[in-house]
Amino acid sequence: MKHHHRNPRARGGRKRQPSRRDPLIGFEAPVTIEQVGARGDGIAHVAAPDGKAVLVYVDCVLPGDEVRVALRQKRGDGYGAEIVEEITRSPSFNPPRCSHFKECGGCALQHMNDEDYRGWKHDKARTALLRAGIDAEDADDLIADVEISPPASRRRAGFSVHVGATGVFVGFHGRFSHTVLNVPDCAVLRPELMAFRSAFVDFLKSCPPDHARDIKEVFVTLADNGLDVLVHASADPNLDMRQDLAAFADTQNIARLSWKVGERPDEPVAARHTPLVAFENVEVPIAPGGFLQATREGEHALVSAVKSALDEIAPKQVADLFCGVGSFTFALALSGKRRSVTAVESDPRAVELLQYAVGQSGSPIKVVKRDLFRQPLTATELAAFDLVVFDPPRAGALAQCEELAVGGPEWVLAVSCNPATFTRDMRVLRNGGYEIEKVVPVDQFLWSSHLEMFAVLRRKQA
């Protein structure tokens, strides 16, 4: 019998090291909130046991609040902390408008009074301009009043869905959590969306649990002629589910209900009529889950800012970049004097729907499908226009701004839903010879940290 002698130099199996628990997790201490951060959370410093000052982020607080917190998780260069005791509240504290405020992750600043909230949004716009290289005094002169959408005005929402042993949940995730909370009295959504949510909960309760559990999210948009509903699910609905959904859509007066599994194209389950939105009295169909401005009030504020700029610029040839289904396109073409507009968009469905509306209305608009991230309009192509308007996704329009900086027209109107990429894009344009003449902050996501910004830029004369 052979004996295999073990090499004495051979390394043994690695011993599993016990996980090192952060000693500060669970640590409690009183703090005074110093400021509200960019995400709407309170920022403070706490003295750790070793004497070092530790940065903490605390939800649902205001500057001047004195609270006792427990550190719960590492977060960037500090720690996320949870309130364990309220000691003293700031005089600026406002009772939250929604009973779910502390648990729900949707709103960050319901507890801030209206005046301070408006000032905080103004300061976000001011900070973006300062980071773009604008002097503080000039920044104050450039920024117009913040346009804030009222409560119960948001017309688009994605409801998370969880069906389990404890019941049916249709709502939003909790703060820093994957738990889905029911939100029967959301203070920011249109009543039509909240009525749908309630009815959909009852519908799911009536479904066989195995089928209801397939549904993971439902995205609802209030079009001008009814609700457009897109269900995201993990499996296709069977025949009974299809029939039940069609009956539900009919009962709830839903314009269209579609079903989507993974990356596959969505499939209409009930199409009673095509959801439409009107721009300058031109009706435009929308795709399931397609982009619209979050509130009608916010859309009106942005379109009004565009029209106001048009009165001064008086362009004849306009490029509307990242145009979607035409939020600004028809205003650019039809308000006041008719103008020739080239509308550019990468989403093939949006392009098709916009082309249809343009054809039906006879508007002086040319619709072009083009990915402006990969293939921006070149300086040579931009020479054909005397005004460029762009409204990109949150990633911004860096590649296009670089081309504008080289050979853009005299005037540019920029719309941004992300102050960080707005700052970057403005720096590029200013380095290319443009100056910002006006900024309008638009708040379509009430009591959140989000902010949209509209800017008028003009190229300096050599």
TrEMBL record:
**Does the keyword Metal-binding feature in the UniProt annotation?**
yes
Superkingdom per UniProt: Bacteria
Sorted keywords for this record are: 4Fe-4S, Iron, Iron-sulfur, Metal-binding, Methyltransferase, S-adenosyl-L-methionine, Transferase
Biased-composition ranges, Basic residues, are: 1-18
Sites binding S-adenosyl-L-methionine sit at: 293, 322, 345, 391
The record ties this protein, via Pfam families, to: MTS
The residues annotated as the active site are 417
The GO annotation for biological process reads: rRNA base methylation
The record's section on Gene3D superfamilies has: 2.40.50.1070, Nucleic acid-binding proteins, Vaccinia Virus protein VP39
Name the segments for region: Disordered. Answer: 1-24
The name this protein carries in UniProt is: SAM-dependent methyltransferase
